[in-house]
Amino acid sequence: MLTFEWPVRVYYEDTDAGGIVYYANYLKFLERARTEWLRSLGIEQDAWLAQGVGFVVRQVQLDLLQPARFNDELIVTVVVERLGKASMVFTQQVRHRHGAILCQAQVKAACVQFGQSGASVKAVPMPPAIFEVLQRAN
């Protein structure tokens, strides 16, 4: 399985009163890495969203192992563990640039179709153009 890596620097706004990365911000780091992974494959989410198709996170398991601090340089990884017709399961890590694993996560994302008004959302199979690119990438 291929590993995609995305660099992130911890900004002051990412930290809490104790000077460490606030736990919810790890979710943002993970999301950015998945977005950049898709972009690296030529999948621009805004183009698909204009057609009413997108990905939503359905489930996250997050394990915070060590703290990151202001100005740390981190690497966020993305590995596709399972690619289904309508969903994907990722294993992701946030590591310090020196190698220490700070956070591990398993994320399940589903492909959805948004209704015209945006009020309705239903799970759908991925469009073939997306699915085929993802299959080739793994």
Number of helices: 3
The mean pLDDT is 94
CATH superfamily: Hotdog Thioesterase
Order of helices and strands: EHHEEEEEH
> How many whole angstroms does the radius of gyration measure?
16 Å
Strand content: 35-45%
Cα distance, first to last residue?
Answer: 6 Å
| Rough outline | globular
The biggest beta sheet is recorded as: 6 strands, antiparallel
Given this structure, which CATH class is correct? Alpha Beta
Domains counted in the coordinates: how many?
1
Helical fraction equals 10-25%
Structural class: alpha+beta
User: Do you know the CATH architecture?
Assistant: Roll
Could you give the count of β-strands?
6
List segments where confidence is low: pLDDT < 50 over at least 5 consecutive residues. Answer: none
Indicate the CATH topology: Thiol Ester Dehydrase, Chain A
